[in-house]
Amino acid sequence: MEHIELLFKSIFIDNMVFATFLGMCSYLAVSKKVSTANGLGAAVLFVLTITVPLNWLLDTYVLQDGAMKWLHPSLEEYNLNFLSFILFIATIATMVQLVEIIVEKFSPALYNSLGIFLPLIAVNCAILGGSLFMQSREIPSIELALTYGIGSGIGWWLAILALASIREKIRYSNVPAPLRGLGITFIITGLMAIGFMSFGGMLTGGDEALKTTTEEIVLDSDSEDYIVEEDQILMDINKDIE
User: Whole-angstrom Cα distance, residue 87 to residue 65?
Assistant: First the structure.
């Protein structure tokens, strides 16, 4: 259940594009055709699936404070967290190079259509963001790190595929001249991001999501309950303004 929840959350709730707006350069530039977007999305999924668990191993057994005690007890005092960016990016660059070789070998047409954006996956902030989020959220096991990498990759793939599908259809629409190109693309992305926000209450619970602190504040003091209604709060605010 934990894996399913993390997978769902990384795809829909914490979507790399719609929640954190990472990887926007490639997302906007390579989303003109579904075929090209599909290829880049698959490449991003592959890289995230491999690099997140690999970087989890690096973080757990090399970078964290005292992580290298498995090598020798005297190494327990070392903390190599300052090397996180360098090692994470090195791992990502290696995997991207592998993907580039595979795509060029087996699909030259896709390799040519992706152009410079395929090697640029190495510096795609969504790829590095996946590893940094894994580190900051302290994912406890490599299995969950793998699940998070897969979910993040699927989420980014889903986002670029959805945008490419809409952009192919919108070519036949009468879009106002000032909004053509990136203008309408940003609007579509914003609307999809709003739609994805609706998934946020599915894991946290609808009642919790609807709670507000301005309608009623309950303060417990010994045996008495003090309830401050919204009108009273507004009156106090008006007095302060005056």
Answer: 16
Mind listing the pLDDT tens digit of every residue in the chain (242 residues)?
789 999 999 999 999 999 999 999 889 988 999 988 998 899 899 999 999 999 999 999 998 888 888 888 888 888 888 999 999 999 999 988 988 898 888 888 888 877 777 888 888 899 999 999 999 999 999 999 999 999 999 999 999 999 999 999 998 888 888 888 889 999 999 999 999 988 887 765 433 433 433 344 344 444 444 444 445 555 655 555 55
CA distance 186 to 164: 13
* Residue indicated by tokens 């579509």: 188
Question: How far from chain centre, in Å, is Cα 112?
Answer: 27
Angle, CA of 24, 30 and 35, to the nearest 5°: 135
Q: In terms of residues, how long is the chain?
A: 242
From CA 109, how far away is CA 120, in angstroms rounded?
Answer: 18
Give the residue extent of every domain in the chain.
Answer: 2-210, 212-242
Can you tell me the distance from the alpha carbon of 40 to that of 23, in angstroms, rounded to the nearest whole number? 12
d(CA 35, CA 113): 9
Separation of alpha carbons 142 and 226, rounded Å: 49
Q: Which residue has the tokens 């660059």?
A: 93
Amino acid letter for position 39: G
